Amino acid sequence: MSRPVKCRMICQFPQTLEFIPAGNIENIENDRSDSEVIILTVDEYETIRLIDKEGLSQEQCCRRMQVARTTVQKIYDSARKKLADVLVDGRPLRIEGGEYRLCNGQNRSCGIDECYKLKLNQMYQKWKGATIMRIAVTYENGQIFQHFGHTEQFKVYDTEDGKIVSSEVVSTNGQGHGALAEVLNAIQTDVLICGGIGGGAQNALASAGIRLYGGVAGDADAAVEALLAGTLAYNPNVHCSHHEGGHHGENCGGHGEHCGEPL
């Protein structure tokens, strides 16, 4: 029996999920060249981000991703080969899939003491044994803010037995786009209610196990009450036409939900 794949810890979900060479745009839009697309997995992306962008050594990268150095080297070599194919052959690139889990700040083994997710996780701990469902809403002046990637606040509701037991407004502290999903993950959000939201952010939420109710407008408190009553009107095919980085599709391309126990 083969050993199960150990999931790779991902600190930041990619904000841009698709890159298309200028000469291939028409073919991609007409779905004639999908077989030519290079698929870079999310864990491969993370090795590129950490080693080539952040300048970490492979040993430092393996500590961040919590896997063996030989595993990191294998992932990194595969990622570099794919990027070479993209650049040399002019092929489109899509980031999706892989064996990973998104860090929510609970694990200190990455060695980043000043991690904002660690601080948020400590501030918004759920007490042991609680049956709380935590609902976050993109928020501005009592209303549901309509563009997820630009929201500056979430209103966060703790609910139990179908009732709101507490709520507070949480600042995003300047985090934007893909990092907003990481904020929600760090504060242990179960559900997000919002207006428009791009595909990249949807993928990040799905990877974190956060249920999405998009395409909702109006009063934030009323929306939460409607959700608890089972009467919330939402759009399961919501998307955002505003720029949130390139995105492809509406479904999660990751496999973090198959990677054993959450952090």
Q: Could you tell me the mean pLDDT? A: 81
Radius of gyration: 19 Å
The termini sit apart by 26 Å
* Alpha-beta classification: alpha/beta
Give the biggest sheet.
Answer: 6 strands, mixed
**Beta-strand content estimate:** 15-25%
Compact description:
The protein has about 260 residues and is of the alpha/beta class. The chain is built from 8 helices and 11 strands.
Textual characterization of the structure:
With 263 residues, this protein is α/β, with parallel strands linked by helices. 31% of the residues lie in helices and 18% in strands. It contains eight helices and eleven strands. Strands 6, 7, 8, 9, 10 and 11 form a six-stranded mixed sheet that branches. Helix 3 (58-65) packs across helix 4, helix 5 (116-123) packs parallel to helix 6 (178-186) and helix 6 packs parallel to helix 7. The chain starts with 7 loop residues before the first strand and ends in a 34-residue tail after the last helix. 38% of the residues are buried.
Name the features:
single chain, 263 residues, alpha/beta, 6-stranded mixed sheet, 3-stranded mixed sheet, 11 strands, globular, disordered C terminus
